[in-house]
Design brief:
The chain is 0% helix and 52% strand. It is an all-beta fold and 334 residues long. Among the domains are: 6-75; 133-262, YVTN repeat-like/Quinoprotein amine dehydrogenase (Methylamine Dehydrogenase, Chain H). Strand 17 and strand 18 (193-198) form a beta hairpin. It starts with 5 loop residues before the first strand and ends in a 6-residue tail after the last strand.
């Protein structure tokens, strides 16, 4: 290594490797033995590297002043990295308003203040499709969500006039549900239902018949909100802003009465400290609930997402800067 200044330095998720950027070159060391040694030297950027991060224990992502982002695979001899966005990209991306995770389909969805919905490949970070939604800002959306369901991109939004459902692919307004003062709105993880929280109730409508299929009284005191970290098939988690109390409801039964469950025993092995702690000041952590250890930190400008989705392996976060962050914790999951 040269005597130039190290720009950035990171440990791999499994703590076996250290990566550092010096000028336009990235270096990787194996630190598992008493004598750490250099195992990779990645050369490919035309200008200084300004950001470097492990996307998995065996892969790196680097960003440079040359306006490119490169993906590097550790342990595989390849003269050329995968290059993403080699041309200059706009720094004036519209702020992200919501994100939605569909890990089973390998995608994440984001929506921004320009009412543009994008579909992202969670394995590569590439944008697969972009849609200009028909709903306009004049409707005054308060909550939004979107899902790709059986090949159809469905958008739901709440304004003061009700809950609206749109088929984005066909550009059609499908339905306006009965007026309901909504404090939280989400499509269920399996895409079959619309969850809405408000007025002391959690309600669920069928996505395709738009009939009310279940409701339950929420007993939590203080401001209640849907926990977007846990929207699992037909189950939904509800939190209170004034206490750590939480409730869980399963709407996956034919009866109109959902079944309560203990949400504290059903959360993922890896979890966010304090539930929706990204809404507070300072960094937030991902914690191993078995060992009690904090294993990953979101800090700095990434500590305050506008919206977030998490299923215990994949993390998708959207920011006011217009950025969408996708992280895969597969090597940390049991």
């Amino acid at each position: 290594m040269t005597s130039s200044k190290i720009q950035c330095c990171f440990f791999s998720p499994d703590s076996r490797l250290v990566a550092a950027a010096v000028d336009n070159i990235a270096y990787v060391w194996d630190i598992t033995s008493p004598n750490p040694h250099l195992i990779e030297t990645f050369v490919g950027h035309a200008s200084d590297i300004i950001s470097l991060v492990f996307s998995s224990p065996s892969s790196l992502i680097s960003a440079s002043h040359d306006k490119s982002v490169k993906f590097w695979q550790i342990g595989i001899s390849s003269p050329n990295p995968v290059v993403i966005n080699p041309q200059p990209t706009s720094l004036s991306s519209a702020p992200i308003l919501f994100v939605s995770l569909q890990a089973g389909a390998g995608i994440a969805i984001s929506g921004d203040t320009d009412e543009v919905i994008k579909i992202w490949d969670i394995s590569t970070g590439l944008c697969k499709a972009s849609f200009k939604t028909l709903p306009t800002k004049t409707l005054g959306w308060v909550d939004r969500d979107a899902k790709l369901i059986d090949g159809r991109l469905v958008f739901i939004g709440y304004s003061y006039n009700g809950i609206y459902i749109w088929d984005i692919d066909k550009g059609g307004h499908l339905k306006t549900l009965a007026t309901f003062k909504c404090d939280g709105l989400r499509i269920s993880g399996d895409g079959s239902k619309i969850f809405a929280l408000g007025g002391g109730y959690i309600k669920a409508w069928s996505m395709w018949t738009w009939e009310l299929v279940g409701q339950a009284r929420v007993e939590l005191d203080g401001g209640q909100y849907l926990d977007s970290l846990c929207i699992d098939n037909s189950r939904v988690w509800i939190h209170s802003e004034s206490s750590p109390a939480q409730e869980g409801w399963d709407f996956g039964f034919s009866s109109s009465s959902p079944i309560p469950f203990d949400p504290s025993t059903e959360r993922p092995h890896l979890d966010f400290v304090g539930g929706a702690s990204w809404q507070t000041d300072g960094p937030c952590w991902i914690k191993d609930t078995v060992t009690g250890k904090n294993i990953f930190q979101l800090s700095g400008r990434y500590s305050r997402p506008e919206d977030i989705q998490w299923n215990g392996q994949y993390l998708v976060a959207g920011y006011g800067s217009g950025e969408v962050l996708i992280l895969d914790f597969c090597d940390m999951c049991p």
